[in-house]
Amino acid sequence: MSASPAKAHALLALLLLVPVASLGTSMGLWITPGLLGQGVYLASKIWILILPALWLIFIDRERPSLSPPRRGGFLFGIASGLAISAAIVVAYYLLAAGQLDPAALRALAVANGFDRFAVYVGFAAYLILVNSLLEEYVWRWFVYTRWEALLHKRVAAVAAALCFTLHHVLALRSFLPWGLTILGASGVFVGGVVWSWSYGRYRSIWPGYLSHALVDAAILAVGWRLLNSAS
Questions:
Q1: Which of 2, 10, 127, 133 is nearest to 66 (CA)?
Q2: pLDDT above 70 for 1
Q3: Rounded to an integer, what distance in angstroms lies between the CA atom of residue 140 and that of residue 147?
Q4: Residue 109: enclosing H or E segment and its boundaries?
Q5: Domain residue spans in the chain?
Q6: Over 70: is that where the pLDDT of 201 sits?
Q7: By C-alpha distance, which of 208, 190, 206 is closest to 198?
């Protein structure tokens, strides 16, 4: 495939995927937060998961792969995950703890059943083991590589991270004030840059997934402590 069609395909792929994540989040949390909104949100999640696979098979005409880590990168994954996790914990104690309303957050958690330890652990296991892996598959392998076809690798990492951050801003703003939303979104963006760079360097989602999973574990640990501080 020549350069121009390849770039056109990359741009089309981004247009078909990136806005859908924000649309689903907006519908589910802001525009029609009910049965319709949740339906649109679920449909958007399914779409952003199946589009990359369909694109790989029918547009790129390549075979699916388990993204083997042939170049290594696990040490980087562990180190970056621990570093970002430490920054999250420090940011919580120095910047966020005084601005959060534990009682309001606990009420939200109780309404959704997340005040029960077993439910919270199950939810945490899903986010750490499944959701973070799916996000690496969508936002690093697919979205980052589309940007890589259009831009220099370093710029592509920033562009992919911005795309990854957009729908997180909408989600965070639904239960946090603007100051903490910006703080949280900044953390999401930094993580997105690190994990996109990781994919560009190691050509595998697994080092980034390891880092991402460690970061999610730290966030969920802080979240559980916050919920219990209001009990």
A1: 133
A2: no
A3: 10
A4: helix 102-111
A5: 70-229
A6: yes
A7: 208
Q: Are 155 and 231 in contact (CB under 8 A)?
A: no
Q: Is the dihedral of CA 165, 158, 223, 176 positive or negative?
A: negative
Q: Give the Å distances, CA to CA, from 136 to 17, 94, 115, 194.
A: 14, 29, 28, 12
Is 193 within 8 Å of 143 (Cβ atoms)?
A: no
Helices H, strands E: what count in the chain?
10, 0
Binned at pLDDT 50, 70 and 90, residue 112 comes out as: confident
pLDDT (0 to 100) of residue 100: 80
Span 28-63, pLDDT tens digits:
999 999 999 999 999 999 999 999 999 999 999 999
Q: Can you give the pTM of this predicted structure?
A: 0.95
Under 8 Å between Cβ of 177 and 146? no
> Which of 223, 162, 194 is closest to 19 using CA atoms?
162
CA distance 51 to 107: 37
Alpha carbon distances (Å) from 54 to 49, 61, 62, 64, 149? 9, 9, 10, 10, 18
3-state secondary structure of 34: coil
Please count the other Cβ atoms lying within 10 Å of the Cβ belonging to residue 115: 18
Q: In this structure, which amino acid lies at residue 111?
A: A
pLDDT digits (tens, 9 = 90+) for 178-198: 999 999 999 999 999 999 999
User: Which one-letter DSSP state was computed for residue 17?
Assistant: H
Mean pLDDT along residues 162-187: 95
**Cα–Cα–Cα angle for 101, 102, 105, nearest 5°?**
90
